[in-house]
Amino acid sequence: MHQTLKNVFGYSQFRTGQEQVIQAVLAGRSAAAIFPTGSGKSLCYQLPALLLDHLTLVVSPLLALIQDQLAYLTRLGIAAASIDSTQSREETHAVMTQARSGQLKILMISVERLKNESFRNFLSQIPISLLVVDEAHCISEWGHNFRPDYLKLPDYQRQFSIPQALLLTATATPQVAADMQAKFAIAPDDVVSTGFHRPNLNLLVEPVSGEQRLHRLTQWLLQRTHQSGIVYVTLQKTAEQVVEHLNHQGIAALAYHAGMENPIRESIQQQFMAGQVKCIVATIAFGMGIDKSDIRNIVHFDLPKSIEGYSQEIGRAGRDGLSSDCLAMANRDGLQVLENFVYGDTPQPQGIRCVLDEIGSLPTDSNWEITLYSLSARSNIRMLPLKTLLVQLELRGVIASRYSFFGEYRFKFLVPTNTVLARFKGERLQFVEAILRSARKAITWHTVDFDALYKVYATERSRVITALGYFEKEGWIELEAKQMTEVYAVLTPGFDANVLGLELAGYFQSREVSEVKRIHAMLDFFASDRCLGNQLARYFGDVNVPDKCGHCSVCNGQVVQLPESALLPALDEQNFFELCGDVMQRHRTHENQEMSVESLTRFLCGITEPVQTKLKARSIGGYGALENYPYAMVRNWVKMR
């Protein structure tokens, strides 16, 4: 272990906590590493991966994280690869070939990849020593970045006979840590937490009104033009506006957000990493894959979404251990925007009922095949809460996730058909001929017709897909797969839809309340009269911290009084039909029913939902007209109309 640390990674000793975690993994036990950002969590799987017999499978929530880790491992000469959506089929097959032959030590994927039919077939063919879950707080409903698909990881571990798991995170409250430990049956002694206090980070909070933020940001950055820094904002349009202002002030800055094309984002990230651009103005899409040691300042131009998010974002500063400044421009102006994100993720009761009625109409032991996009449109539930709803139905024993598959496979020949057929004999030749005969043929493309194939040849779907993959690997065909379909087994269709619907609606309402409280806890933290460093560490269960850090705003004698938001005109002065008449008429025409109070409120607050996409609501006058008002206030106003 120590020899590998020195010879491969170039370190003479472990950082705090690393050796304990690695020893647990090498002893064959599951473990969890809860370390602050930049404290070396990744080494806890990278080093064991070189010493374990078989493949280490790493599940990560972001492509940027995967790419950053792969670049580092490649520089060290470690055999690591990923399978992701940016790759060609040829690249994917090359990675799979390496894994099958035992050449790969580390394979990195997203959690969604584990639902892919062909990938699951591939995994079942290779031995895996260790499952690594990066950003493991995503598995907990108590966490700030809950990912429903992460709840399935313990089942995946069992399905693929992976003997042990390693969980990594920087932001786990005691409740989240307990949830992680229970789900993966980790012994208490193998949950290693090294504390959350970062003594080199200066936590600074200033009360800055919305109108003064650009002026204050300009002042701040003009004093730090030689430093690398990140300015965090909530909305994509804000990132663009702030960058335009900074550039006019002579401060070179670039925007970064999820609305940009991947190549543009990658270029901006590379420029930042190389020091070619010092300032990035970004949404939270930027950061998780950034392992830059000399980031000297972090600015929260808008309110963070939670204390966990704040901790994660400031954790990107000062990874080299040198003093770094983290400034939050605190006010209440962005409160409604943050709350609206939460309200938009609460399904309406009629949407939940739509899903339940669809399941209830199926017989016991039947399969329920859906495409998430279509179900989202039918139920008017956004994608993330829809996935959460499906997971909740699994947890209640109503349905069970089986697998996912592409509903359509089509191919075109790159060589003459006879060249392909000539490569097979006997039963294999009959099998290939049956695939080709049953396929629906257009001018160039052939679409696999599984139903027609099964009538003339007894086979399994997995064998057909494996054969198509082999044809593609050999360069005989070009293959395309479309229409990702999720398959669930219906376990208990005879449920009471009224009772279950109310229960699930209550579950989502409680999550809504919890998330709004999380936002207000962030505000309370900024306005506190207690040491910010001490509070932050204790929030994550770290009690071994000084009462006063000596270098936060409070310790410097600056207790913040948050400025109140600007007064808005009374809603009674607004004309309801002027704002909503057009969208109500369009909804009536397209959906043949009246808009609900909730949908009208979301329209006025600028909160997107699937029905608005169909109506092209963003182009209708009134969309987002009341986005600065509290959601509950707008909803009550709509109810009275």
What do you see in this structure?
By secondary structure, the chain is α/β, with parallel strands linked by helices. The protein has 4 domains: about 1-195, Rossmann fold (3-Layer(aba) Sandwich), CATH 3.40.50; about 200-335 and about 515-540, Rossmann fold, CATH 3.40.50.300; about 360-490, no CATH class; about 570-640, no CATH class. The protein is built from 26 helices and 18 strands. The strands form 3 sheets. It has a 7-stranded parallel beta sheet, with helices on both faces. A 6-stranded parallel beta sheet has the order 8-13-12-9-11-10, with helices on both faces. Strand 3 (about 80), helix 5 (about 90-100) and strand 4 (about 105-110) form a beta-alpha-beta unit. It is globular and about 85 Å long. The mean pLDDT is about 90.
Q: What is the gist of this entry?
A:
The protein is an alpha/beta fold. It is built from 26 helices and 18 strands.
Attribute tags:
seven-stranded parallel sheet, alpha/beta, globular, 16% strand, Rossmann fold, six-stranded parallel sheet, 43% helix, 641 residues
Provide the residue-averaged pLDDT.
Answer: 91
Please tell me what the overall shape is.
Answer: globular
- The fold-level CATH name of the largest domain is Rossmann fold
Task: Give the spatial strand order of the biggest sheet.
Answer: 3-4-2-5-6-1-7
In terms of per-residue confidence, which ranges show pLDDT below 50 for 5 or more consecutive residues?
Answer: none
Distance between the termini: 70 Å
What does the radius of gyration come to? 27 Å
CATH 4th-level superfamily of the largest domain: P-loop containing nucleotide triphosphate hydrolases
Named CATH architecture of the largest domain: 3-Layer(aba) Sandwich
Oligomeric assembly: single chain
The structure class reads alpha/beta
Number of strands: 18
